[in-house]
Amino acid sequence: MEVPVIDFGELDGERRSETMALLHGACEKWGCFQIENHGIDKSLMEKVKQLVNQHYEENMKDSFYKSEIAKGLQNKSLTSDADWESTFFIWHHPKSNIDEITNLSDELRKVMDAYIDKLIKLAENLSELMCENLGIEKDYIKESFSGSKGPSVGTKVAKYPQCPRPELVRGLREHTDAGGIILLLQDDQVPGLEFFKDGQWVEIPPSKNNTVFVNTGDQMEVLTNGRYKSALHRVMADKNGSRLSIATFYNPAGDAIISPAPKLLYPNRFRFQDYLNLYATTKFAEKGPRFESMKRMVN
């Protein structure tokens, strides 16, 4: 099995409907996909990766290998809740904390801000395409996420360091993401990311040519009434290299009220006889409009 690849360059051409169907299927059946021709300057993405790797080497690597988790691996005393990762988190919206993070170079702050500005536009575009596929208003996801100050956006910057005993520890344990739409800029050489699909773990290859890897979180599953699933995933530790992961979360605001989109809900609390009466006149029509009629009757 290979994770779907969505070519955004096809959205303005003759293959738009095919591309939209591919996106819809990826959201429904996988909960993850890769985007190519996304419109973000690839030299900017390369600069982000270069500067983050440089920051790790200069400020994080030594301390990680002196940490309790590294010592625990060495003497085989690791607890089951350990993750073999070295991370920091940047908030972008509604309020940025990037100037408060110690040891970040001015160049990394500037380049990261420029990258995130582009990535937010991609997330908003993607949310509108999802809404179109679901048959709901194009701003529904963004407005549902907005709360009082707009959607919450933050980035987990992680390195999964080279691991001498990868059989003893996960890079990151199995989980689904709590939020909305996650956009990942990842390593182009070192593997490790895996998603659970149809009863088996599927390896996600390193991202060549700076594709953006996307997965949907728990709030998208709630908002779509289960149509778009949040997928279980994990990161495996690697003996041969250190893996880079820059995961940006386009999430609901903390005060956003989340509930399924009404248009995606099935009708409920109706008398079966009322449904049969409607069915008698609509039996050979599409069932979707029949469900919508029942919702209006109940309300």
From TrEMBL:
<keyword id="KW-0560">Oxidoreductase</keyword>
<keyword id="KW-0847">Vitamin C</keyword>
<keyword id="KW-0479">Metal-binding</keyword>
<dbReference type="InterPro" id="IPR005123">
    <property type="entry name" value="Oxoglu/Fe-dep_dioxygenase_dom"/>
</dbReference>
<dbReference type="InterPro" id="IPR026992">
    <property type="entry name" value="DIOX_N"/>
</dbReference>
<dbReference type="Pfam" id="PF14226">
    <property type="entry name" value="DIOX_N"/>
</dbReference>
<comment type="similarity">
    <text>Belongs to the iron/ascorbate-dependent oxidoreductase family.</text>
</comment>
<dbReference type="InterPro" id="IPR044861">
    <property type="entry name" value="IPNS-like_FE2OG_OXY"/>
</dbReference>
<dbReference type="GO" id="GO:0009693">
    <property type="term" value="P:ethylene biosynthetic process"/>
</dbReference>
<keyword id="KW-0266">Ethylene biosynthesis</keyword>
<feature type="domain" description="Fe2OG dioxygenase">
    <location>
        <begin position="149"/>
        <end position="252"/>
    </location>
</feature>
<dbReference type="GO" id="GO:0031418">
    <property type="term" value="F:L-ascorbic acid binding"/>
</dbReference>
<dbReference type="GO" id="GO:0046872">
    <property type="term" value="F:metal ion binding"/>
</dbReference>
<dbReference type="InterPro" id="IPR027443">
    <property type="entry name" value="IPNS-like_sf"/>
</dbReference>
<dbReference type="Pfam" id="PF03171">
    <property type="entry name" value="2OG-FeII_Oxy"/>
</dbReference>
<dbReference type="InterPro" id="IPR050295">
    <property type="entry name" value="Plant_2OG-oxidoreductases"/>
</dbReference>
<keyword id="KW-0408">Iron</keyword>
<comment type="pathway">
    <text>Alkene biosynthesis; ethylene biosynthesis via S-adenosyl-L-methionine; ethylene from S-adenosyl-L-methionine: step 2/2.</text>
</comment>
<protein>
    <recommendedName>
        <fullName>aminocyclopropanecarboxylate oxidase</fullName>
        <ecNumber>1.14.17.4</ecNumber>
    </recommendedName>
</protein>
<dbReference type="GO" id="GO:0009815">
    <property type="term" value="F:1-aminocyclopropane-1-carboxylate oxidase activity"/>
</dbReference>
